[in-house]
Design a protein that fits this description.
Helix content: 40-55%
Number of domains: 4
CATH class of the largest domain: Alpha Beta
CATH architecture of the largest domain: 3-Layer(aba) Sandwich
Number of helices: 27
């Protein structure tokens, strides 16, 4: 039995999917709101019997592996590794995976991580520095923190001895090439591995180690991150997501900080639902159009739409949290801001007293309330307050999709400023009209214009073939019943229908289960569908006869009329 089969045998598709979204029983199946597109009513159906899912809204379908791939933003090997760990299955890879370019990159990154870890273990000075910053050995080991030696080719030589080609090292973002000579990208830096959702190392973020022995560090950037590679796109991952996602799902919110030390210290303080943007970047869409992978905020939203931005308490941190909030609001997320003391970062606060960090997180405020309080605490002039509300608050409110929420914020502004409601609404409408391209950002499609009228015959054909597929899938012996009813429908016509709908087999089966799954006997429905389909075909045939200018045409026309009357006389209503 293959690793894939073992995993499927041990993990129920309902159990796997219910770890990510809320599901509810619906007859033999389960249903949920689709995690792959926005919807108000559930159209996402899960079949335990066939270990598959299908969404009637967006067409998403597949098994546990494709679900985890799409939800977590992984490739197949990533979903395989994640589910294998969950199922307790040891993976046995095929030999040909050794030739896969991405797999080579994963192996190079893993070897580089081990090399950096080994360097750290042998460097007491680096360890003393991290301990002085408040990290304990367990946190350092869990996050695989390492060290890049103060040497131009130490990693290159190590990987070269392991048999990796220099071009592959360059593709992985580990070395650079200058005039044909390769040298290490990371030198004299504390290394923080960045992992994908399944825990595989895909990039590194390096913080300069300010050793007293190295004067060159004075001229280098404090932080250095891996470039975009075959494995790493800075918009598709967040530092620490592999360790935080389970807690985010349980607590139903995420904490987003800026730096690596902020993240490690927050986890160490008990907030293991923390991720960091260090080495990554936010995108204003859910999916990367080039790679078709889900972006980092999109992944957070799927796990939980609730997010707390806890960036540094200086002006740069406040600006960053405002920008990030606008992006998250446009993705219909619920945003809070943690109010850090001016000039402090989370790592410093936690080092001083972890209880202070807990209080800051607990007292975090909705982004609009936070921005409004900031304005009111710094300005006394009502005219300037109104100007700042227009500049800083309105750009956030117009991104909110819920009219009820918008109204609540307008009321909050009224209560805190004394500005009449009608004036706030008037200014907000004016701002939106002048500054917001509603046609571009909120495209409204009228149902009557976009509605596709489906012919009755097409509906009947789809329903009949769906029932046939469904019955075949359940190995039900109903050939006598169906054959008797189909005597008046051409055999070639049915064969062509089956061939046409074969690619949509799973979708049709789900559709039939949705309508008839709880009924013990669908014989009445089958008969009614076939009779109605036969009538539609006869009507088409009647039209195709055209002028009744021959005896043969007239005879056929009369037979069609007779058969239609027979159908009407005993059709089940």
């Amino acid at each position: 039995m293959s690793s894939v089969d073992k995993i499927k045998e041990r993990l129920s598709i309902v159990d796997v999917i219910s770890l990510y979204i809320n599901v509810e029983k619906s007859g033999k199946n389960f249903k949920a709101k689709c995690p792959f597109h926005n919807e108000k009513t559930p159209s996402f159906f899960i079949s335990p019997e066939r270990n598959s899912y299908y969404c009637f809204g967006c067409g998403a379908s597949g098994d546990i592996f494709s679900f985890v791939e799409n939800f977590e933003g992984l490739d197949f090997l990533g979903s395989l590794k994640l589910l294998a760990n969950r199922a307790g299955v040891t993976l046995e890879f095929e030999q040909n995976t050794n030739n896969d370019e991405k797999e080579k990159c994963y192996k190079i990154m893993e070897e580089a991580t081990r090399f950096f870890e080994s360097n750290y273990e042998n460097n007491s000075e680096v360890r003393a520095y991290l301990v002085s910053r408040g990290l304990n050995d367990k946190t350092i080991k869990d996050f695989r923190v390492g060290y890049a030696l103060d040497n131009w080719q130490s990693l290159f030589n190590f990987l070269n001895k392991k048999g990796f080609h220099e071009k592959d090292m360059e593709s992985a973002g580990l070395v650079k090439n200058k005039d044909g000579r390769y040298y290490d990208r990371f030198r004299s830096r504390i290394i923080f591995p960045i992992c994908d959702s399944s825990g595989r190392v895909i990039a590194f973020s390096g913080r300069i180690f300010e050793s007293s022995k190295n004067n060159e560090n004075q001229e280098q950037a404090k932080y250095l991150n891996s470039p975009d590679t075959l494995l790493f796109n800075k918009s598709n991952v967040l530092f620490g997501i592999d360790k935080a996602k389970s807690s985010i799902r349980t607590r139903d919110y995420s904490i987003v900080v800026e730096g690596q030390m902020d993240l490690l210290m927050s986890h160490q303080a008990g907030f293991d639902n923390t991720v960091a943007v260090s080495g990554t970047a936010f995108s204003d869409s859910l999916v990367d159009n080039e790679s078709m992978k889900i972006n980092n905020l999109g992944l957070l939203k799927r796990i939980s739409p609730n997010i707390i931005f806890a960036f540094d308490g200086d002006s740069a941190g406040l600006r960053a949290s405002y920008r990030a909030s606008k992006i998250a609001l446009s993705l219909d997320m619920q945003i809070k801001i943690a109010d850090l003391p001016n000039g402090n970062d989370p790592a410093e606060i936690i080092l001083g007293n972890p209880e202070d960090w807990k209080k800051i997180i607990k007292e975090s405020k909705n982004v609009i309330s936070f921005e409004l309080n900031k304005i009111l605490n710094s300005i006394n002039d009502n005219r300037i307050i109104g100007k700042k509300i227009r500049e800083n608050i309105f750009p956030l409110i117009v991104l909110i999709k819920s009219s009820i929420e918008k109204r609540a914020y307008i009321e909050e502004i009224r209560l805190k400023t004394g500005i009449p409601t009608e004036d706030i609404i008037s200014d907000l409408n004016d701002y939106e009209r002048k500054n917001f391209d509603t046609e571009q950002n909120f495209q409204k499609v009228k149902n009557e214009d976009s509605e596709v009228k489906i012919a009755k015959k097409d509906i009947l054909e789809r329903r009949l073939i769906g029932i046939i597929f469904w019955k075949e899938n359940h190995n039900d012996d109903f050939s006598t019943d169906i054959n008797d009813l189909l005597l008046n429908i051409e055999e070639n016509y049915l064969k062509e229908l089956k061939n046409h709908y074969e690619p949509y087999k799973d979708a049709l089966i789900f559709e039939i289960e949705k309508y008839y799954g709880d009924k013990n006997n669908i014989g009445r429905e089958i008969k009614e569908i076939i009779l109605n389909l036969e009538e539609e075909l006869l009507k088409e045939k009647k039209v195709s006869l055209g002028k009744l200018d021959t005896e043969e045409k007239l005879k056929e026309f009369n037979l069609i009329l007779k058969r239609i009357e027979e159908i009407k006389s005993y059709r089940l209503i």
